[in-house]
């Protein structure tokens, strides 16, 4: 038989690179020269049908040092999917196994650039740009326009990539102009392949008569008691053309404002020096923002800075402490000191020596009810005032309150009674969702016919009871109620009464 070497392996490294109306095919040069030529085929229907694109075998165009063979197919249309198939031809005319590659040619030709015809400063950072294009010069794949902004003629232009304008647009409004800078605009034409062409830059000069917003959100950065140094800060107003500030001060709202900086102040913090060893307990500041056109803002709201007085506040005085069975309520006269900012309430058991902080209250609070208490315990309370400088008053004279016990405990709910004549008993069931601390048990009350329920049986902690004595009696009407008893002597009210009929026993 004839020698059959088996299938000839395909050429290696086959690749297809897209171009503008061209596809560049390439593959590895055969180092052992298995092939004398190649057949190149192309499919436009996804590989179902192939057509050879050369009149004869392609022999390659590689030099001695070239490692790859290339072929350019210029008979293609952009954005159409092509599949290529390559086979090697041995010196005996045997075709190798085929290798394939897919590719889509793309358009690299940019559309004609637009040209800006008019610009207008509307107000603030808003600029209107108008442009036009060469009549009938835009390609079929034209996608639209972007507007670009820069503060330099030859600088990097920031394109508004989130706002692609339609192909028929000839006007746009942009809000990125900066009053203190030169503003240059371009209009960029782009096609569906993202090829772009930009117009020549156009300078837009802004006119500014709008002042910045006044500063807000003032805060005290630092106060040094030993030197009287005060540093305040504020939020920078949202104005692109913000330039500087003027700072004013006064010690009383009825005084006149006094300018504190002879030269313009550029930072959003300001350091001032005061005499803190005085009767003055506060100072006010006001700031005016200025833009590059020297438009002043409205004055800020006066910012009050409380000053340390080095004197602790006077302690509050309790006026009453009233205990109940579940709370201790108290009232007091507030500290007469003007700079109290907080009141701290402390509590302890009468048997303890250390105070525990119970809560912090505002400066105007003059009463409090303590709900977190236990029956038959005696609690002591004291109070302390804190001023704006962090000084604390002495502790107020303590008051006491002993929580008493009324003996009343929560009762059962959802009591039901069902007669089971087949088994000969009445089944009681109930719920006890809110027991108090301590040992307790349930007591069932029963009434016969029209009699009031009387104490009948104890069930322990079981929330159900089967009355089996009804089958030995001739009465037919029964009423039941349940009470909760506690080891410490407390008891609940009697529950609502439930009635049940049990048929009389036949003689």
Q: What does the largest sheet look like? A: 5 strands, antiparallel
Query: What's the Cα radius of gyration?
Result: 47 Å
**End-to-end span in angstroms?**
117 Å
Query: Helix proportion of residues, in percent?
Result: under 10%
State the shape.
flat
Question: Unreliable stretches, pLDDT < 50, 5 or more residues?
Answer: none
- Average pLDDT across residues? 87
Overview of this protein structure:
The strands form 10 sheets. Strands 10, 11, 13, 14 and 15 form a 5-stranded antiparallel sheet that branches. Strands 4-3-6-7 form a 4-stranded antiparallel sheet, with no helix packed on it. The protein has strands at 15-18, 23-28, 35-43, 51-52, 68-73, 82-90, 99-103, 115-123, 126-132, 142-150, 158-159, 171-174, 183-191, 196-198, 202-204, 216-224, 229-235, 242-250, 258-259, 269-273, 282-291, 303-306, 317-323, 328-333, 340-349, 356-361, 367-370, 378-387, 399-402, 413-420, 425-431, 440-448, 454-460, 464-467, 477-486, 498-501. It contains no helices and 36 strands. Strand 23 and strand 24 (328-333) form a beta hairpin. The N and C termini lie far apart (117 Å).
């Amino acid at each position: 038989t004839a020698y059959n070497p088996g299938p000839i392996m395909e050429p290696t490294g086959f690749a297809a690179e897209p171009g503008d109306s061209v596809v560049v095919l390439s593959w590895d040069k055969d180092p052992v020269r298995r092939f004398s030529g190649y057949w190149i085929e192309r499919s436009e229907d996804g590989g179902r049908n192939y057509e050879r694109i050369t009149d004869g075998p392609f022999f390659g165009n590689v030099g001695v040092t070239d490692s790859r063979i290339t072929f350019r197919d210029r008979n293609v249309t952009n954005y159409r999917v092509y599949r290529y198939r390559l086979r090697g031809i041995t010196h005996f005319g045997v075709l190798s196994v085929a290798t394939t590659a897919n590719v889509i040619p793309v358009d690299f030709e940019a559309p004609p650039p637009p040209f800006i015809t008019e610009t207008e400063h509307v107000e603030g950072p808003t600029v209107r740009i108008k442009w036009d294009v060469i009549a009938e010069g835009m390609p079929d794949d034209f996608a639209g326009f972007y507007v670009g902004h820069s503060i330099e003629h030859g600088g990097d232009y920031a394109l508004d990539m989130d706002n692609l304008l339609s192909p028929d647009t000839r006007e746009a409004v942009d809000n990125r102009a900066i009053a203190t800078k030169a503003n240059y605009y371009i209009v960029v034409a782009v096609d569906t392949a993202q090829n772009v062409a930009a117009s020549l830059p156009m300078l837009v000069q802004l006119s500014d008569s709008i002042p910045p917003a006044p500063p807000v959100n003032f805060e005290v950065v630092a106060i040094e008691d030993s030197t009287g140094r005060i540093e305040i800060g504020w939020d920078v107003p949202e104005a692109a053309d913000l330039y500087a500030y003027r700072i004013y001060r006064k010690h009383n709202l009825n005084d006149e404002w006094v300018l504190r900086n002879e030269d313009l102040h550029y930072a959003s913090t300001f350091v001032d020096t005061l005499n803190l060893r005085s009767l003055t307990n506060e100072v006010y500041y006001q700031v005016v923002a200025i833009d590059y056109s020297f438009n002043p803002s409205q004055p800020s709201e006066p910012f009050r800075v409380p000053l340390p007085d080095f004197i602790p506040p006077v302690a509050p005085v309790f006026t009453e402490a009233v205990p109940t069975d579940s709370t201790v309520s108290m009232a007091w006269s507030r500290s007469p000191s003007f700079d109290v900012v907080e009141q701290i309430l402390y509590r302890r058991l009468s048997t303890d020596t250390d105070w525990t902080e119970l809560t912090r209250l505002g400066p105007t609070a003059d009463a409090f009810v303590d709900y977190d208490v236990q029956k038959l315990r005696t609690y002591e309370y004291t109070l302390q005032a804190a001023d704006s400088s962090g000084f604390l008053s002495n502790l107020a004279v303590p008051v006491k309150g002993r929580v008493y016990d009324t003996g009343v405990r929560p009762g059962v709910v959802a009591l039901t009674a069902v007669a089971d004549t087949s088994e000969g008993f009445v089944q009681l069931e109930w719920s006890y969702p809110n027991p108090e601390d301590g040992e307790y048990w349930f007591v069932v009350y029963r009434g016969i016919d029209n009699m009031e329920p009387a104490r009948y049986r104890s069930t322990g902690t079981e929330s159900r009871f089967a009355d089996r004595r009804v089958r030995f009696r001739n009465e037919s009407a029964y009423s039941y109620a349940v009470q909760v008893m506690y080891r410490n002597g407390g008891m609940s009210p009697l529950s609502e009464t439930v009635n049940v009929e049990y048929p009389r026993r036949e003689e």
